[in-house]
Design goal:
The chain has 2 domains: about 1-90; about 110-350, Bira Bifunctional Protein, Domain 2 (BirA Bifunctional Protein, domain 2), CATH 3.30.930. It is about 40% helix and about 20% strand. It has helices at about 1-20, 20-35, 40-45, 55-90, 110-125, 135-140, 170-180, 225-240, 295-300, 315-325, 335-340, 345-350; strands at about 125-130, 135, 160, 165, 190-195, 210-220, 245-255, 255-265, 285-290, 305-315. The strands form 2 sheets. The protein has a 7-stranded mixed sheet with strand order 1-5-6-10-9-8-7, with helices on both faces. A hairpin with a 2-residue loop joins strand 7 and strand 8. Helix 1 (about 1-20) packs parallel to helix 4 and helix 2 runs antiparallel to helix 4 (about 55-90).
Length: about 350
């Protein structure tokens, strides 16, 4: 039995040495050390031995098993190292080659306009205020001097969620919320930017669009007037759209201001000479404005005899179209990389 164990050990060591691939090594391992392997057969035949011989033979079998397992493990490591080196050689990267240029992202034109406007108004002493996009009928209409049945409501085809809740049609709701939150009735200088929703969809309108609105409220003794509104809007328009534009105020109607004005700017395409963009008038309408209506002040807790101010608002999407010469508002929402990548260059030109 001892000689048989020694023979298995010697023969197996020689076979292990001659193995040339990992698969053959696994097969040899099973042949020698597996459940039906040669060493396992020796252990099973130990029942035929005398009781005093069994520990000796068992010890020799274990010693042979340990020796062969170490030889097999060493061979496995050699094969694995060889395969790894072969793979590394095949997949190696030449670090001396120039790297691929990383594509840099581009800020969306709407975000560019919003950031510029917020920076401008903060520098003028305004606060940036936010409000909910899901509004109540009270804040979207009633607190802005638009009671139930008011004909001006028909101008805003709305998305109602319930009888009382709707997706806001204008950011003016934030103005009402700001006035109510101002318990001490300190001076208000605020703007708000955000999404609004109406059932519209064509080249110059979208069911979702962005607005900016501004509100200034102060005591009447400080004489916040139409002149202040005009000066503010001149700075705003020339900074955001173009430095050489002129403004024109036209009387208009808004329920929350009185008097109310539409504000036009000289056409950025023809410089006021008249073209197809401005319909040969030389002017393009950009925003609405006016002196805050006494009813709005009263509804939101201010005495119209003691307080006054002005408000203005415009569509951010339209400002982006004017600033960058975008012909269709829907381009702003398609996320086409070819379209969005233009605006680093365009901002340098503006």
């Amino acid at each position: 039995m001892k000689s048989k164990i020694e023979e298995i050990k010697k023969k197996s060591a020689q076979e292990i040495e001659k193995i040339t691939d990992l698969k053959s090594l696994e097969e040899l391992k099973v042949k020698i050390l597996g459940k039906k392997g040669e060493l396992t057969s020796v252990l099973r035949s130990m029942k035929e031995l005398a009781e005093e011989e069994r520990p000796v033979i068992g010890s020799l079998v274990n010693e042979a098993r340990d020796t062969l397992e170490k030889l097999i493990s060493k061979k496995e490591e050699e094969f694995k190292k060889y395969e790894m080196n072969k793979k590394l050689e095949k997949e190696k990267i030449d670090i001396t080659l120039p790297s691929s240029k990383l594509k840099r992202g581009s800020i969306h034109p709407l975000n560019r306009i919003i950031e510029d406007m917020e920076d401008l108004f903060v520098s003028m002493g305004y606060d940036v205020v936010e409000g909910p996009e899901l509004e109540t009928d009270e804040f979207c209409f009633k607190r802005l001097n638009l009671p139930e049945g008011h004909p001006a409501r028909d101008m805003q085809d709305s998305f109602y969620i319930t009888d009382n809740y709707l997706l806001r049609t204008q950011t003016s709701a934030v103005q009402a919320r700001t006035m109510i939150a101002n318990k001490n009735q300190e001076p208000i200088r605020m703007i708000t930017c955000g999404k609004t929703y109406r059932r519209e969809d064509d080249a110059t309108h979208s069911h979702q669009f962005n607005q900016i609105e501004g509100l200034v409220i102060d005591k009447k003794e400080r004489n916040v007037s139409l002149a202040d509104l005009k000066g503010t809007l001149e700075v705003f328009v020339r900074k955001i759209i173009g430095a050489n534009l002129d403004l024109r105020f036209r009387p208009s109607y808004f329920p929350f201001t009185e008097p109310s004005y539409e504000v036009d700017v000289t056409c950025f395409k023809c410089g006021g000479k008249g073209c197809n963009l401005c319909k040969q008038t030389g002017w393009i309408e950009v925003l609405g404005s006016g002196i805050v209506h006494p009813n709005v002040l009263k509804i939101n807790g201010y005495d119209p005899e003691k307080y006054g101010g002005f408000a203005f608002g415009t569509g951010i999407d339209r400002l982006a179209m004017f600033r960058y010469g975008i012909t269709d508002m829907r381009y702003l929402y398609t996320n086409d990389v070819r379209f969005l990548n233009q605006f680093d260059r365009k901002d340098e030109e503006v």
